[in-house]
Automatic annotation (TrEMBL):
It comes from the Bacteria. Keywords: Hydrolase, Metal-binding. This is Adenosine deaminase. Pfam families: A_deaminase (PF00962). Residues 144-426 form the Adenosine deaminase domain. The keyword Metal-binding applies. It comes from Alteromonas hispanica. GO terms for molecular function: adenosine deaminase activity; metal ion binding.
Length: 466
């Protein structure tokens, strides 16, 4: 018997091997949905809102801090606008959404192209909801990086919207038995309806009020935040210094820093940040870093360079497979790779999961876990990631347990809370095993998120033999 393996978990291992072979897609999915999951530690809060979650809060003045939003429903030409730092001209995007303040600054001609969100007709509303997810075959990486975020416009500057998306995520994660959420957000751009900036203390207050609400506490999902900054902007170094100071002042909630933004923009190369990080670490205690690296379909040394920055975790690590020295160094090591299968597939880093490097990392001892990245954009959840992994890579029970516990072991929550969460996961897993071995019926899933139903319709087919 391997050290640490109980007799029950060995029995479960055999049970799961048989179950996988006999289960229908719906049965396997239901099993993975009910399985206690350690956490989702690669999660962007603004990218993790489903369309209707955005809609509900953006159109509710009483709950959203008093903002009214207008969205672009017509592209009639008024006058030219230049592209922004993301290489996009948001004025040319349907469903580009602005607050009253920005709306009033538009020319009358341009105002005629916008409609108040709450006044959209049914067809326009559906198109608005579709505009913030990747739901069409031609929509891929460019649509995601160059259009989706730009469309959200001023809604990304409203901390009440973030609070709402946070609560909706916590409630959704409770339903699929996720214990911990470590989510990334940016707070420096938050603005009151009149354009006055929020202080970081004010944003922290709104987030912590959300976490203290009865609705949030009822979920039993533990949450911590990473502050993210866009890596290729001209003032990214200064942003990093400010972000460091904000995390330092609110370490009870903010547990790490992340660098985001497409990696094929050379201006955000990892080593750009080394002098700044060294300067910051000379002045105060280190802040844990989880950094996007290797989300690329060509070989480079970004993962090695990112480890040199002091990162403890790598987001995606997709091209690690093409950097043998770093891959060897990471085997059985302390650094974890956060794997996002659906994201990599939809943003076209791989054409098929059959060639994804995840199983090679998992089975050569590179610490990995599964996470969702921007689940609102894919209309998916964490169970979908586990389902795809089991289906494509034939995961064993032991591998599932390791993926789940890695999400907590490598979290930035701090030692005491980490141990408490690990214990909770162990206890819940033990109960889950006993229920499965005793054939206790699995709870019915009321609604699937759309991704899995189009990926594998049999999962959602309630009439098939279950
Ligand atoms: Zn990400």
């Amino acid at each position: 018997m391997p050290a640490g393996a109980s007799n029950t978990s060995l029995v479960m291992s055999d049970w799961f091997r048989d179950f996988k072979q006999q289960a229908t897609p719906a049965q396997l999915y239901d099993f993975l949905h009910a399985m206690p999951k350690g956490g989702d530690i690669h999660h962007h809060l603004s990218g993790s809102g489903m369309g209707d979650w955005w809609w509900d809060i953006a159109t509710n003045l009483n709950k959203n801090g008093g903002y009214t939003y207008y969205t672009k429903t017509d592209l009639s030409l008024c006058r030219g606008y230049g592209t922004n730092e993301f290489g996009t001209n948001p004025q040319l995007l349907l469903f580009h959404t602005v607050s009253t303040l920005s709306y009033e600054k538009l020319s009358t001609c341009e105002q005629d192209n916008y409609t108040a969100l709450s006044e959209l007709n049914q067809k326009q509303k559906q198109a608005f909801l579709n505009s913030i997810k990747l739901d069409k075959p031609h929509e891929g990486r460019d649509e995601f990086f160059q259009a989706h975020w730009q469309r959200m416009g001023d809604m990304l500057q409203n901390p009440y919207i973030y609070g709402h998306l946070l609560l909706k995520n916590m409630q959704a994660y409770q339903r699929e038995n996720v214990l911990y959420l470590e989510t990334q957000l940016q707070i420096s751009q938050m603005r009151y309806p009149d354009g006055t900036p929020y202080t970081s203390d004010e944003v922290v207050q709104i987030l912590s009020d959300t976490l203290k609400s009865d609705a949030a506490k009822k979920t039993n999902v533990t949450v911590r935040f990473q502050l993210a900054l866009v890596r290729f902007l001209p003032d990214a170094e200064q942003q990093l210094e400010k972000t460091w100071a904000t995390v330092n002042a609110h370490r009870e909630l903010f547990v790490g820093i992340n660098l985001v933004g497409r990696e094929d923009n050379d201006k955000g190369y990892p080593l750009r940040f080394l002098p700044t990080l060294r300067k910051l670490r000379a002045k105060s205690e280190a802040i844990p870093l989880s950094i996007h690296a290797g989300e690329s379909d060509e070989p480079n040394t970004h993962i090695k360079d990112t480890l040199l920055l002091g990162a403890d975790r790598i987001g995606h690590g997709f091209n690690l497979i093409e950097d043998p020295d770093t891959l060897l160094m990471m085997r059985n090591g302390p650094y974890l790779v956060e794997i996002n299968l659906i994201s990599n597939l939809l943003l076209e880093y791989t054409n098929s999961l059959d060639t994804h490097p995840f199983p090679e990392y998992l089975r050569t001892g590179v610490p990995v876990t599964l996470s969702t990245d921007d689940r609102g954009m894919w209309s998916s959840n964490l169970t979908d990631e586990y389902y795809l992994a089991v289906k494509h890579f034939n995961l064993s029970w032991e591998e599932l347990v390791a993926l789940n516990s890695n999400a907590i072991k490598h979290s930035f929550i701090g030692e005491e809370k980490r141990q408490a969460l690990l214990l909770k996961l162990e206890q819940q897993t033990e109960d889950f095993i006993n229920e499965r071995l005793n054939n206790t019926p699995l709870p019915n899933i009321e609604n699937h998120f759309p991704f899995i139903c189009s990926y594998d319709p049999q999962v959602c087919n309630k009439t098939s033999k279950r």
